[in-house]
Write a structure and sequence with these properties.
It is globular and about 50 Å long. The strands form three sheets. Strands 8, 9, 10, 11, 12, 13 and 14 form a seven-stranded antiparallel beta sheet that branches. It has a five-stranded antiparallel beta sheet with strand order 1-2-3-7-6. Strands 4-5 form a two-stranded antiparallel sheet. It folds into two domains: 77 residues, Phosphorylase Kinase, domain 1 (2-Layer Sandwich), CATH 3.30.200.20; 141 residues, D-amino Acid Aminotransferase, Chain A, domain 1 (2-Layer Sandwich). The longest helix has 23 residues. It contains six helices and 14 strands. The chain is α+β, with helices and mostly antiparallel strands. Helix content is 28%, strand content 33%.
Length: 246
């Protein structure tokens, strides 16, 4: 596979990825970096090889979700660190799925981390780094016209399907999917009137919590957030269990 990929102008550089304009109209090239950040970019570091792992995990997850009927923006992986995706209009929400109490939910509600939830919980936060991505209610979303009733219903339906599938997929390799974040985008028809919602961004140990089912060992970015060490080995272990080779 070629290491140099033809691409257009740099569009945006975020905390974990760089986006370039694709050669074909309506496409974007995502480049996955090794940079690691936490606490709204207050903590910064590097996890060697993270970008390669996140690219390949995202490829696997997106392809598997497409097979069960979840539309995504993913087209193909181009190299170890780059993938081609469809250009989308991002819905300005982070969709947070929780199966077990952890992280900010444990602190916010005073519940012991690791407490299983009676049913999956879906929360929303506003995509705004300057504000710290604050949690918002469904009524905020509708009142602020961030999404309409139909879109919100579709987001709930797809998110529950994604959670059901991924919990089973990770359970099959001895990993408990504790929580994760998703983003959705709109792909418009050529006339610019009609559109469809698709899953966008990425799915990797960067944006989910993965605990070993036997030991509760953390296999995700919490190892970086909490100064636990072993970040590289944790990411590699997730990839290994998923059958990803390098």
């Amino acid at each position: 596979m070629a290491t140099e990929i033809s691409k257009g102008d740099k569009l945006y550089e975020g905390k974990a990825k760089i986006l370039y304009k694709g050669i074909e109209t309506g496409t974007i090239i995502q480049y996955f970096k090794d940079d690691a950040t936490a606490f709204n970019n207050q903590k910064k570091g590097t996890i060697t090889g993270k970008g390669i792992i996140n690219n390949k995990v995202t490829e696997l997850v997106m392809n598997n979700l497409e097979r069960i009927g979840i539309p995504t923006h993913f087209i193909e992986r181009l190299s170890d660190r780059e993938q081609l995706v469809r250009e989308v209009d991002i819905v300005p929400l982070e969709v947070i799925v929780r199966n077990v109490v952890a992280g900010t939910m444990a602190k916010r509600l005073g519940i012991e981390e690791g407490t299983p939830l009676m049913r999956p919980l879906i929360e929303f936060s506003l995509k705004d780094d300057d504000l710290g991505d604050p949690l918002i209610a469904e009524e905020h979303i509708l009142s602020l016209d961030l999404a309409d009733d139909e879109e919100l219903s579709e987001i709930f339906d797809m998110t529950h399907q994604i959670n059901d599938f991924l919990r089973g997929m990770f359970a099959g390799i001895g990993i408990n999917l504790i929580d994760f974040k998703l983003e959705y985008g709109r792909i418009f028809d050529e006339d610019g009137i009609g559109y469809r919602l698709v899953l966008a961004d990425e799915f990797s140990p960067d944006n989910c919590r993965l605990w070993d089912m036997k030991t509760n060992e953390k296999l995700d970015k919490d190892r970086f957030r909490r100064d636990l060490g072993g970040e590289v080995e944790a990411y590699q272990e997730v990839a290994r269990r998923l059958g990803i080779t390098f």
